[in-house]
Design a protein that fits this description.
Strand 4 and strand 5 form a beta hairpin. The strands form two sheets. The protein has a three-stranded antiparallel sheet with strand order 1-2-3. The chain has two domains: 41 residues, no CATH class; 79 residues. 8% of the residues are buried. The chain has three helices and five strands. 65% of the residues lie in helices and 13% in strands. It has 122 residues and is an alpha+beta fold. The radius of gyration is 22 Å and the shape is elongated. Helix 2 runs antiparallel to helix 3.
């Protein structure tokens, strides 16, 4: 998991601060430092890190899906497929990919639900 914050030792009585590497805000609040929390993002960094990792995985999947679709369209056009045949090929590609897309949608719904629960509890 990628690091989403940096603890800065200020020295002496000043103590420590926490800098969010997502939004670049720095907090000097000792509770934020202890709990690794970003008040600007309104999220704990363990959640931010997990969400960031999941978003990277999701973006990779969507990029691969888009590349495959573009590749399939290029092949169909090289083969001289007419517009009707091309639309059928695209529909098939989307139909086959629906489970992956549905999983991504379900993950985003779960993230939203988790965020709402954490907001309620904090």
């Amino acid at each position: 998991m990628g690091k989403t914050f940096e603890i800065i030792n200020l020295g002496g009585l000043a103590g420590r601060s926490i800098k969010c590497l997502i939004c670049n805000m720095t907090s000097y609040n000792t509770n934020d430092v202890e709990k690794e929390y970003c008040g600007n993002c309104n999220e704990f960094h363990n959640v931010l890190g997990a969400r960031r990792e999941q978003m990277t995985d999701t973006n990779t999947e969507l990029t691969e899906w888009s590349r495959k679709l573009a590749h399939d369209i290029d092949i169909a056009m090289e083969d001289g497929m007419n517009e009707f045949g091309l639309s059928i090929a695209i529909e098939d590609h989307v139909r086959i990919s629906l489970p992956v897309l549905q999983r991504i949608i379900d993950q985003e719904k779960q993230n939203s639900l988790s965020r709402n629960i954490l907001d309620f509890l904090s």
